[in-house]
Every structure is written in C-alpha cells, then in structure tokens.
User: Fold this.
Amino acid sequence: MGIRFILMVNKQGQTRLAQYYEWLTLEERRALEGEIVRKCLARNDQQQCSFVEHRNYKIVYRRYASLFFMVGVDDDENELAILEFIHLLVETMDKHFGNVCELDIMFHLEKAHFMLEEMVMNGCIVETSKANILSPIQLMDKAH
Amino acid sequence: MEQLKTIGRELAMGSQGGFGQSKEFLDLVKSIGEARSKAEEDRIVLSEIDILKRKLLEPDIPKRKMKEYIIRLVYIEMLGHDASFGYIHAVKMTHDDNLLLKRTGYLAVTLFLNEDHDLIILIVNTIQKDLRSDNYLVVCAALNAICRLINEETIPAVLPQVVDLLNHQKEAVRKKAIMALHRFHRKSPSSVSHLISNFRKRLCDNDPGVMGATLCPLFDLISEDVASYKDLVSSFVSILKQVTERRLPKSYDYHQMPAPFIQIKLLKIMALLGSGDKSASEIMYMVLGDLFRKCDSSTNIGNAILYECIRCISCIIPSPKLLEAAADAISKFLKSDSHNLKYMGIDGLGRLIKISPDIAEQHQLAVIDCLEDPDDTLKRKTFELLYKMTKSSNVEVIVDRMIDYMISINDNHYKTEIASRCVELAEQFAPSNQWFIQIMNKVFEHAGDLVNIKVAHNLMRLIAEGFGEDDDDADSKLRLSAVESYLQIISEPKLPSLFLQVISWVLGEYGTADGKYSASYISGKLCDVADAYSSDETVKGYAVSALMKIYAFEIASGRKVDVLPECQSLIEELLASHSTDLQQRAYELQALLALDARAVESILPLDASCEDIEVDKDLSFLNGYIQQAIESGAQPYISERERSGMLETTDYHSQDHHEVPPHALRFEAYERPKPSSVPTQASTELVPVPEPSYYSEAHQPISTSSVSERESSEIKLRLDGVKQKWGRPSYQSSTSASSTPPQAENGTSSHPDVGVGSSSLKPRSSYESKKPEIDPEKQRLAASLFGGSSSSRSDRKSSSGGHKPAKGTASKPPKENPIPVQPPPDLLDFGEPTATSVTATDPFKELEGLMDSSSQDGGSTDVMGLYSDAAPVTTTTSVDSLLSELSDSSKGNPGTYQSQTSKGPNSKEALEKDALVRQMGVNPTSQNPTLFKDLLG
Assistant:
C-alpha cells in the first residue's frame, strides 16, 4: 500500500498534523504516535539513519527546525524516495506560506491537509508538481 | 525590498482578515503551541471540548464560525481526544455550497469516520450530487472523499458517475477518478473487474499527472496478475525513457531530476514484469543501463533512483553488465559517510546476494562496520543481510552474534523476530547437536516468553525423534547433552515458563535414560522446579508428569522406588489443588506408584513419546457388553443422523458437506456473490466440518496430513527442511571439519578463533600488504563470516578475472578510516549535492533577492533577545539550543542550501509573524519561539 501515515510532530512530541491512510481507532493512533515519537526523538540525529523500524512499519523521518516529519511506510517502500517526498512536501508548503514555520501549519491546518490530499491518495504518491498541488488551494483562496 | 515583502505579506493576510480566524481560535492554537507538557495540552483540550459542546448547541451559527469549530474538532481528535459529539456538524458542512466550507467538511469527515460509520450514509447522497457539479473543484473534493469513505456496499452508488468522470476534460478530475477506481479495486476487486481496461487507457493520458497516478493501480494489478500485462513492458520502458529524456513538463522536476517519483514507480512495475522473464528483462537493459550512467549519485533523489534500479535488477534476469553496474552503485553506497546510504547499500547487498553470492565478499569490512555501528537501524539491517547469507560454514558466528544482540535489546517485537530467525538458522545449519541444544537453550533463556509455543514443541519432538536417521547412538548422545545442559541451567532463577516446560519434559523422558543420573536426583530437581514456580500451573503440570515418568521407568525396570519426602509433600499438596488438571495428574501419579511393574510398563513404556497411540474408534472391545445389553432387552443405538431423519449414505464424501441439520449454527461463510475458481475438493478438506467419529477413520490420514502441513507453514520453522539439512551429508561434512585441524579447505571457517589469521588470510595475501591498519579483531570476524566463500575464491579467480579490480578497490577504502572520523553530514541534508547544480532550480533562490542578508546568527540572537524582552519568562536554555541548532544546520549543509545560510530572513519572518499575531491580539510569550522558526531555514 505504500504510505500508511504521515505525522508532523514537534520537538516536544506534540502532534501538529496527522493523516492516516488506513483506519486506526483513536486509542490505536494515540498509542502508535506515542511510541513512534519516543523512538524517533530519542535518536540523536547526528550519524544515524533517518529510518526506524517499528512494529510492522518502517518510519522515515526528517527534522526541519523544531518540527519532525514522519512517514510510516510498508517494508518494500524506497526509503530515500520517501525522504525526498518529505522534502518536497516542505518545499511545497514553503512555496505557499513563504518561509513556512510550525505556526503556519497550526493556523492553517486544513490547508496543510489539502496539500496532502493532492499529493497522496490511497497511500500512493499521485502528484509531485508543486503547481498542480497548489492550484486548487490558490483558486479557493481567490474565491474568498 | 524587504519592506515590500513585509507589506505584501500583511496585505495578503489582511485580505483574509488577519489569518481569517477569530481571536478565540488564535488563542487556542497559541495555548496549544505553548503547552509545555502533554498534561497541560490535555487540560487545554478538555476545556476546549467543554466550550465546543456548548457552542455547537447555539442556534444559527454563522458558517464561517462553524468552519472554525470544525477545525477545532479536528484539533481535539488530532491531540488524542474524542470529538464524536461534533461529527454530525462536519457531515452537515459537506452539504454547504461554499467550496472552502464543503472541502473542510469533507476533510473533517474523512479524518473522523471510518468507512463503516453510520453517518457515511448521510454523505453518499451529497457525494453523488457533488460528482455532477459544474465546478471541477467540487467534483475533486467529492472524489477525495470517495477514496476515504466508500466501502464495498456503497461502491455501486457512485461507480457509474466515477466511470463517467474518467473522461472529464479537467486532468485533475481524471486523476482523482482513476484513484477512486483504484480504491474500489482494493475494496472489492469484483466490483470493477469489468472496468480494468480503463487503467490501461489512462496510462496513455495526455496529462503526465494522470499517467503518473495511473501507475499506482497498475502496480497493484500487475502484482496480482503479471502474465496479463506483459504486453505493456515496452510501453513502460518507453515512458521511462521519455521521462529520463526530460519530455515531461519542468514542473515535475525535483532538484533537477525529471519526475523522479514517476521513475521510481515505473522501475517498481518493471521489476514485477521482468521477474523470471528473460525476454521482458532484455527490453529493459538499455534504459536501466542509461539510468546507471546518467543518475546523479551526488543527490539524494539520484541515489533513490539508483537504489530502485538495484532493486529492479535484483528482480529481473539481469545482464552481467547491469549486475556489475548495480554492484558498483552498492559499493558507492557502502563507502559513503551517510548512514542512510550505507543502509540502502546493505539492503541492496541483501537483494543482490541472491543472484551473485560472492558480491558481499568485496564489502566484508564495510558490512562489519555496519554491524558494529551504534545506530540500531543500521545494525538490524545488517543482521537481515547476515541472515540471508548464512550457510553451514558461518552459521556459528552469525547465530552467536544474533543471540548477543537479541539479549541486548528490549523491543519485544524485534526480539521475537530475531529469536525465531536464530531458531530457524540453527535448525537448518547446525554443525553439531551440542551446539544446537546450546543455542536453543540461549534462545529460550532470554526470549522464552516471546517464542512461539510451537518452537518449544518442535524442540521436544526433535529431541525425541532424533534427526531422521536411524542412528540411535547419535540420538541418545543428543539427549544426554540436552539433559546435562538442562540440569545446569535449571537452578538459575526466573526462567521463562516455556523453557521450564521443555526442561521438565526432557528430564522426565530422558533424565534417567542414560543411567548417568539417578532417579532421586532428577526427581529432586523436578520438585525444585515445581516448588520455585508454584504459581505457574502449566510448569507444575509438566513437572508432575515428568515425575510420573521417572517413577514409572524405575518401577518398570524392577528397581525399588523411594519417593522423596519433598515429592511426597508435593503430591499431597496437588491432590487438593484448585486446578483440576493438577489434581488429576497428582492422583494418576499416586495410583501409578501402587501398580506392579508389568502394568506400569504398558502404561508408560520407555522412550515411547513418538510412538503412535492407536485408538480403537469403533470401541469394538465393548461389543460383548452391548450384545449382552441388547439381549437383556435394551434398544439398539440409533446414530444421530438416523435420528434426525437423514438418509445414511455409503459415501459420506459425496454428500454436500455444508448440509448441517437445520437447527445447527452455520459456521461457514455464505457463498460468495461470484462463484470463485477455488476447487471445491480443496475447500471441503479445509472447512472444519464436524465429522461423526465413526466415519473419520478412513478419512483421517488425509486430514491429518493437511493439518500438519498447514501448521508447519504457519510457524515458519522449516521442519521439513531440517531433516534434509540435518541429513548425513551436511552433518558429516561438519564433523569432518571439526575433527580435522584448520588446514582443511573448509575447516577454517568453522573455527573463528583458531588459526584464521594464518590460513584463511593466505589466499588474500596480495591485499594483505595493502591494508595493515585494519583491526585484527575485525579481520577475524570478516574471515569467519565470509571465509566460506573466500576459500573458494582462489579457484574462482582463475575463472573470472573480471571481478579482480573491483575487489581491490572495494576493500581498500575501509582501511583508511575504519572508524569514520569526519563529522558526518547533518540529517537535514545528508545528500551532498553540489551547490552549483542546485542553486539553479532552488525555489528559494528567487526569494533570496528580496531578503535582507544580515548574518544569520547575529540576527537570530537579536530576535531571541526581543522575545525574552517581551515576556519576563526566562528561556535561556531553549534559546541556546535553538541557536546551536541553527549553527548546526548551517554547518551541516555543505551543499544544498548553502545559498540559504546567508539568506537570514528566518528571524525577520518570524518577527513579522509575531507582530501580526500581536496585532490580532495574541501575545506570544517566549514560551515557544520555535513556533516561528522557518522549517526550511
């Protein structure tokens, strides 16, 4: 299935965005996020892989300033490509918000989700052109 | 310039009315952002729940306000609390005419509800309506929702419309429609089986976005049924070729790489299609070769594609040239300083090793470095590789290492996995019985609670049955060594329950068999176990049964039995046990002690655990009794079938198995809507239809064999393989290896500590002089891991000289610095693309001109100073860490974003945002200044 979930979590371990591509109950999500965050944040990010195995997931994570982007994938996914997908996501948000920061995502949670909706469907990467990703959002902005 | 930007920003935000949000919302976000602990966050969210519950009850909530409430509900769930009280409002919002509100409603609904939620039925109607909308953005929003919310039952409600939309004039709609179809295929393949051709059609879509998306469903389809898509091989190859030749629009480029994500998907598909198919593979050679040649290995994304090429080559039937290219790429990965690339390299090695087993040899030292790396992820990956390359010559070293690692970790999930791998390898390649028992003991001792219970049963069976040979001597030796080792271990504190069960069972069966240990000694030990683990009833049960066997063997052999006092008290205690099972065993033991030798021998014969017990299912020994009863006037027995009025048929099999008396529960599923191609014969055997006992005798052999087959596949231990591997050939070769001194060709490898330095390194003497600095410890390990193949290397050298140069270069680099001294690149940008190549497309470069180029560090200190002025709270520590982070990241980015390190607007931007939030009436304290930090800074 490819991507199973996308998380954005800050340095304190607080969730800033969560999108799951398979159904988990609230409790399952809370437990999973807690475990993953503990695992990823405990790794000193010098000298270590950006990949962590957890249960049946492989988590590819990348840190930008205070925010961790974590993508849970299947075992047969290309980890490096996912790592670059994260960067593409951040670049796209940066293009829209301009010097995107944690607060932008918090204030515009729905927009961050809209971007993800364009980029990932059914757990697959379906769009990688920034122009295509952002155009529906820009059109909606214009209408208001 | 910079002022212009500020003004522009404020204007942009002003047009939305600040952030377009109320002060309440801003306050909420701010307080969540500044929460210092999970407990504080929870408090905020709980009070927010109270507020929203009240607010949502108010009449006539303005729409914009409602949208905000919905987002606040999303926050509540995101932070781990239940917001189900507001779901209905999100559902209502999907009905709204306003696009933004509608989309927000859909978004919230997809986040809140799973596809089987009761509320979905209220949305299906809206979705149907929206699919007909003239506004393509509305259609897209509905299609997004379809991909999350439609389940098998609701597919027919939207399917015709989705199919129509496949030809919509807007590419965005076509793309989402194809993904909706993809989703339907996943949920219920039969619902779209007649529409499969659409996926092929969309592959030829004019729009590259639609084409790229279509690859996702095609990947699924092809992995299900490769044969039907062989005709597409050349299409995929030509698409890939066009992509690499930059025929796609520039907007798909990522860091100057043309549509890398599409390339990767295509490579994945090609790997499926070329697997085991020479002619399909040959079509791919050219484009794969081009990729290896062209791919920029200095960028991360370039390496991602190279890695995918390696994977593709490991699946198809590659040409020698491609194999060499893949091996080169792997050695580059392994030599890199980046841990990520090393990880990919190890993974690639594990894949390629299946095709060319000698490839790992060139990288032995790199592999060992990875094995000893402090990074757990890398270490695990390396263990996976070792697991794949285990053979009888290196099994001891590898399994020892695995067990050491298993003992050192706490993660139960992985501990279980590695334990079962140890067991599997030990069963397959064990060089000797003693070693095997030793390994199993370690596994049970340290991961006993995690191992599948079947592993324990297998071990018992293995010890009981021997190893499939008729060598009784070897079998009894094995048993004796097991007994000896268990007697050593048994007194250790806190052994896992499963292990104790095995120990008790083996001691009971074979403890006294050899005559080495007396019955009273063994029974004393067993009583100790029962005593020490008195809360574990299963262990106690095993112990009592073992005692019973010990005494039975004693009685049967005519010796006088002295029941130990502690044993006597144990029996007495158990006679009054709350557990009926233990009680039963105790009574049986007591009864047995009173019997004579002949009776005992027939009850519990020596070493008969593997003998089949024949059960007379006809109960024929009762015939006389029945006859007597009938003669004295009893009614003859009428079977249940006859009683329920069913006809007795001679062949039970020919009857429909599903026919069950009408009052009984049906346990099988109802028939599938479409008769599947599963052969009925197979299904009848697998469906556990309750069988009357009188029938099953004739039928039994079949059913038991099928059951045991299933079992063995379930537990993943290749028991069938065991016998083969443990058969004479491998066993003999290993004994010869252990008996002969190291000069034997193969003997070196199985003796890691003896004489490896001298003999196994000899064939490599030409390289030896070149790498004097390698830690001899490591060399020894390398030799024992790879030694088996390195000894054969000398013969291979003559046949294939082509590998020689590669080997020389490959083994050189690790020697220069076995421990990388260089500061490894920061995680943020571990690929080291050259600055020049990236700046050309760097999307931020354009911004650069607009920005003030004040020095970054100075700038940020100022800002931090401002923050702490604004609020009296002292946050020096966090400021410090922030600064160090900044400088770290600027240090760590030698290449990619060097241009940005001088950009320095981060703090300014943050300041602007801060100012704006302040205007909105929110006063950010310096509690969490990172909130304002540029993510890309």
Summary: Residues 1-18, 648-662, 675-772, 789-905 of chain B have pLDDT under 50 and may be disordered. Residues 776-799 of chain B form the longest helix (24 residues). The CA atoms of residues 154 and 201 of chain B lie 25 Å apart. The radius of gyration of chain B is 36 Å.
